[in-house]
Design brief:
Elements lengths: L2 H4 L11 H20 L20 E3 L1 H9 L3 H14 L6 E7 L2 E6 L1 H14 L12 E5 L14 H16 L3 E8 L4 H12 L9 H17 L1 H16 L2 H25 L5 E4 L4 H13 L3 E3 L5 E3 L8 E4 L7 H16 L3 E7 L3 H13 L8 E6 L2 E3 L2 E2 L10 H19 L4 H21 L7 E2 L2 H4 L7 H20 L16 H11 L1 H11 L3 H20 L8 H24 L9
Parallel strand pairs: 4-5, 4-10, 5-6, 10-11, 12-14
Antiparallel strand pairs: 1-3, 2-3, 7-8, 8-9, 12-13
Helix pairs in contact: 2-4, 3-4, 5-18, 6-19, 7-8, 7-9, 7-10, 8-9, 11-12, 12-13, 14-15, 17-20, 17-21, 18-20, 18-21, 19-20, 20-21
Length: 590
């Protein structure tokens, strides 16, 4: 289900930003002009942001659609429409409309640029905030498996879910981060078996020693099928609540949780609730009984319970013949728990696209059980992350520990900072953490979710080109200018752009700044943070062009200086807000 289908139309009340007002004004001017020159004014008016500055601030190609009906060339229609638009004296944010080869190009007035800068200064950290919806948006993400190391493959769900949570919170929802740990699967049973069998291995004290146990037990199981039956027996005892077995499971959980918490600390990730599959085993069994009673599932002769989903989806197992539950069964109980405790407006699951069918089956089973809230459930699937050696596999020991990746990223950043700057050790440590981890986050978030990623640490944490470090550096450049201005006892002006012309470099930058709410809305509605990444890169490029063309502290006049300081201040605000929505810290120095 798409985001738009889940919105309560009664609460679509967005703040009136200058860019929204300008778009509405241009559309209204165009509609009025079309009424006077066309026999039909119901043509779709699509206003787009042109790529080139000479094409204006908004462009429309509606004249091509009208050409056949009016039996005139698009060029002729555009010239007539533009004349009508320019004759209208009710223009505020639209300065003029220019016809170019059948296209209509709208240019914004100085009043627009003034209003945009004022609202950024007034809004500060809240600039770009929207009201797309209300109520609780539950974002279920990260969910590493207890008993397995938190490897680099977990980072995508973790940072993607965190950014979506931030975007929805910024868009009017009360966002809740939910981490559902895999703590009752076969991997836990195998580890319990490994602790019983391998007395020669070092004590299991961290995730790396845990991986040694996990790899070895899987090797032994492949050689001896009887061991697999022992592991199944342990899994049965876990679900039955055997105290001795559960004590061993708790030991595994404690080792895993210490590693999880270190990684979340490095990433700056905070969850409002953390729970695990084991908490839902008993309720899952009740859902099986309910499904059989309602006739949507059947119990076969060997005791296996199958939920009937055909022909829409493949049928699937709800309970094994030995009475144990599956991921899907526990997900049904989890969904009921979420609804009971949160009465969510949105319930998002951020997992690999490999689970697309699984969640289709979960949602369809919920529907058949009569859970109306299933319409509010959405699965956001993403591509896999591959190493150069191939797909990540804990079973075979082919993993890259997430903590190692983050620490290596910090070290790479530290080397670059030491090479170019002279800071004390504490400052270098602080900056390298923000830049190194920020680089990893930005590099992965910038890729559209459905694409697979071939992971290369050096490429991911590169500080050259279109990277998170480039955006952070742009923020630092703006901070440096403002800091120097403060040292010189000057500050941004209060009444910009009224008595002073605004040049093209200034216009392009302010126009890009004004677009921030549009980028936030698009990223939030589509659950796609990469849209915001692309926006921040474009904004950084616009600032670089402004920086090269417009001296700030050495401006020719005090008025120019104050005006440009205001633009720099607005740039810092928007970059900071955007980075925060990606879960990336903005350093003041770099």
């Amino acid at each position: 289900m798409e985001f738009g289908e889940l919105l309560d139309n009664s609460c679509l009340v967005n703040p009136v930003y200058a860019i929204i007002s300008a778009q509405k004004e241009a559309r209204k001017l165009l509609k009025n002009a079309l009424k006077s020159v066309a026999t039909r004014a119901d043509a779709e008016i699509l206003l787009l942001r042109p790529k080139e500055a000479w094409q204006g601030d908004l462009s429309c190609s509606v004249c091509f659609e009208l050409a056949r009906t009016l039996k005139k060339s698009p060029k002729e229609i555009a010239e007539e429409v533009a004349r009508k638009v320019n004759e209208n004296h009710k223009k505020i944010f639209v300065e003029k409309c220019e016809p170019v080869n059948g296209h209509l190009n709208f240019f914004f007035s100085p009043a627009f640029f003034e209003a945009a800068l004022k609202e950024i200064r007034k809004g500060k950290g809240d600039f770009g905030r929207l009201k797309l919806g209300r109520g609780v948006a539950l974002v279920d993400y990260s969910h590493p498996n207890v008993g397995k190391p938190m490897h680099v493959g977990h980072i995508r769900s973790t940072i993607l879910g965190d950014s979506i949570k931030r975007l929805l919170s910024f868009s009017g929802y009360k966002s809740v981060g939910f981490n559902y740990l895999g703590d009752s699967g076969s991997q836990v049973a195998k580890l319990v078996l490994a602790m019983q069998k391998f007395k020669d291995l070092p004590e299991m004290t961290n995730e790396k020693s845990m991986l040694d146990y996990y790899v070895k037990i899987n090797q032994e199981i492949e050689a001896d099928a009887a061991l697999n039956e022992e592991a199944r027996g342990i899994l049965e005892r876990i679900e039955a609540g055997d105290e001795k077995t559960l004590r061993e499971v708790e030991r595994i959980r404690e080792v895993s949780m210490k590693a999880f918490e270190r990684n979340y600390g490095l990433l700056g990730i905070v969850f409002e609730e953390v729970t695990g599959e084991s908490a839902f085993v008993n309720d899952a069994k009740k859902r099986v009984v309910e499904a059989v009673k309602k006739g949507i599932a059947i119990r076969e002769a060997d005791g296996t319970v199958i939920v009937k989903l055909e022909p829409e989806l493949p049928n699937t197992v709800l309970m094994r013949s030995n009475g144990t539950t599956l991921y899907l069964t526990r997900d049904l109980a989890l969904a009921d728990y979420k609804w009971k405790n949160y009465k969510f407006a949105l319930n998002l699951y951020v997992t690999a696209a490999e689970q697309n069918l699984h969640f289709q089956q979960v949602f369809k089973t919920l529907e058949k059980l009569g859970r109306e809230y299933c319409r509010k459930c959405v699965h956001i699937g993403f591509g896999l992350l591959f190493l150069e050696e191939g797909k990540i596999s804990s079973r075979e020991g082919r993993v890259v520990f997430l903590e190692d990746v983050l620490n290596n990223a910090r070290e790479l950043a530290k080397e670059e900072i030491k090479r170019t700057c002279e800071y004390d050790a504490q400052m270098i440590e602080e900056i390298s953490t923000k830049v190194g981890i920020g680089a990893v986050k930005f590099a992965l978030l910038r890729i559209t979710p459905e694409k697979n990623i071939s992971f290369d640490l050096k490429r991911v944490v590169s500080f050259q080109g279109d990277t998170g470090a480039y955006v952070q550096y742009t923020y630092v450049r703006a901070s440096n200018i403002l800091r120097k201005a403060l040292e010189q006892r000057t500050s941004p002006g209060r009444r910009p752009l009224k008595a002073l012309a605004i040049n093209d470099a200034e216009k392009n930058l302010v126009r890009a700044l004004a677009d921030f709410p549009i980028a936030v809305e698009s990223a939030a509605k589509q659950f796609r943070p990469h849209i915001l990444c692309d926006y921040l890169l474009d904004l950084s490029n616009s600032f670089s062009a402004f920086y090269d063309a417009c001296p700030v502290l050495k401006a020719e006049t005090l008025e120019e200086r104050n005006q440009r300081l205001l633009i720099v201040e607005a740039t810092k605000t928007v970059l900071g807000n955007g980075l925060r929505l990606l879960g990336i810290e903005a350093p003041e120095r770099m």
